[in-house]
Amino acid sequence: MGFLTxxxxxGLLGIGLPVxxxxxxxxxxxxxxxxxxxxxxxxxxSSIKHRRLxxxxxxxxxxxxxxxxxxxxxxxxxMQNALPLARANRVTVAAIDNSLSMxxxxxxxxxxxxxxxxxxxxxxxxxxxxxxxGQRVQAMSEVTDDRSALNAAINxxxxxxxxxxxxxxxxxxxxxxxxxxxPLDVHLYSDMQQSGMPTNFNDLRLNADVKLEPHPLVxxxxxxxxVENVVVPQRVYxxxxxxxxxxVSGLNNSSKSTHNVSLSLNGRTxxxxxxEVPANGRATVEFLSLEVxxxxxxxxxxxxxxxxxxxxxxxxxxxxxxxxxHALFVHEADNTRGLLYFKAALEASGQAAxxxxxxxxxxxxxxxxxxxxxxxxxxxxxxxGGFENELRSYVRGGGSVLIALxxxxxxxxKVPVADDHVEGTRxxxxxxxxxxxxxxxxxxxxxxxxxxxxxxVKFYQAIQVAPGNxxxxxxLTDQTPLLLDQTVGAGHVLVFAxxxxxxxxDFPLHPSFVPFIDRTARYxxxxxxxxxxxxxxxxxxLRDAKETGSAVDVVDPKGDRVFSLAEATRAQNIQFTxxxxxxxxxxxxxxxxxxxxxxxxxxxxxxVPQETLTLWQNTAxxxxxxxxxxxxxxPRPMSLWWYVMAAALVLGxxxxxxxxxxxxxxxxxx
Length: 670
What we know:
Layout: E1 2-3, H1 16-24, H2 56-74, E2 76-80, H3 83-88, E3 91-97, H4 107-120, E4 127-133, E5 137-139, H5 147-155, H6 166-180, E6 184-190, E7 210-216, E8 224-231, E9 235-236, E10 242-251, E11 257-265, E12 268-277, E13 282-290, E14 295-303, E15 314-321, E16 325-331, H7 337-348, E17 354-360, E18 375-378, H8 385-396, E19 400-404, E20 422-427, E21 438-441, E22 461-465, E23 471-476, E24 481-488, E25 491-496, H9 513-524, E26 534-535, E27 539-541, E28 553-555, H10 565-568, E29 573-575, E30 580-585, E31 592-597, H11 610-617, E32 636-639, H12 641-669
Helix pairs in contact: 2-12, 4-5, 7-9
């Protein structure tokens, strides 16, 4: 305790005033008239009893009143930590992990319980914020000191199917600290899964104003079994039984164990097989009895894991049964070699999505290309005028044409449909190289893979075509464009400046020919080679530029519509956030059933070492960006003036009442 103006303590001498009033003031006797003094005995009266203190309570009140008045002027204070003010410039953040692995046992419930305990321990004026994080960070509340709002935010945290990302949490904490410009006390409630750590440890760095306090929810690693992957075609085109290959993994299991794996389609169990899973290993299960009915079907492979995380015991996949689509192959009547090699390559690839309908140039007069998935023109001369006009309309409306150029194409000065100028023929002569090879490949094009090797293919003849605005996918050693892709309207014209007949080149004899024809057919027929399932967090495009304003209906695994009526006409893509099946219905009729599975990195319940957590806590570096957070913790003087004046007022009223009472008694006695 101290005094801001201690010199006023000299007023304590005023305490002598009540002493004088009660003790030292001269006693005065009041004379009374009496008729005769003859009967009174004369003696000397002592004054000692008049100097005794009278009215001790009144004396004490007056002394205390003077003392309080002096103390009030001296302005007393005490040193203490101003708790509400000190905590007002720090923010407590409760980050709750709601990834897939938190579904194991009661981990999420325990995390929420500990977070509620943290909120209940906040002091008056201390603010906090609730975060939920998995692959992304979601702010469940604003920065507030309203405990009811904070507890409601904790209760609103729901389990998700996403993957843990501590790097994303660290990035969000850096952003929050910079935007608030205040120190953060971060309490992390998580199972501290090792797979959630980034490959680059620098992604975990924290600002100097961020104090991280991890709260691990588990202490020991628990074994887990999961269906890691399922291999199955996304589409089938025949009634033959489909092969399904499932991979089952055991994680952190100390010994091998046997489990039953079931294959089901549309909720009906097709087959069940036992599998022996080795310690910390994988096992495969092959099903050969799947008969796929027409339409879109929901498939599932499930293991009776018997572990604490049943969410990864199932793996979803979608498979669709369709009839093969027809493709038109137009050729000259006396040249069927190109048809032979093209059709053989398509069959060798295992591609049953397309059936080739051959036709000569003369037969193409009455054909309508609109009913074909794509059209191939193999070294043709002039086309019937009506058929070529139909092809132009077909391509502008979104169709695709593959044109192979040979000696018959030289007679025309332009490439059919594409109208690119034909500049002549390039032959490999005896004077120089006997053949040409491919010098460059654009591996970003869909018909070319990164590991494709065309450099051993020999080209003896190629047609020189002016590329114009076309994309050159492949060039020969003399820089002659070999493969060109030109966009015409909404469709494509793919020009191969040679033939498929094993005469102008030996391409059909090389292993690279079969995958080239397979990918070309898929590209022209707009048949994506998508997987039967995708991971949670993946995106998919819902519409193209021409479909703006048309509604897209998406139903999630819970049976709810993802978009409102207004959003359905504007949404360009969708992110899959739940495991299960999404039903997508597009305005152009391209409906799709998408199977979504959680990232199987979440199945590994191994824990982050304590040393790594300590290093993460120590990543805070750089100057503090908070506004004077440290100085708020220093003791501050708190004035007691109001308390002293209130006590003096009470004593003054009590002294007045008691003094009036004693005065009235003295008057009556007189």
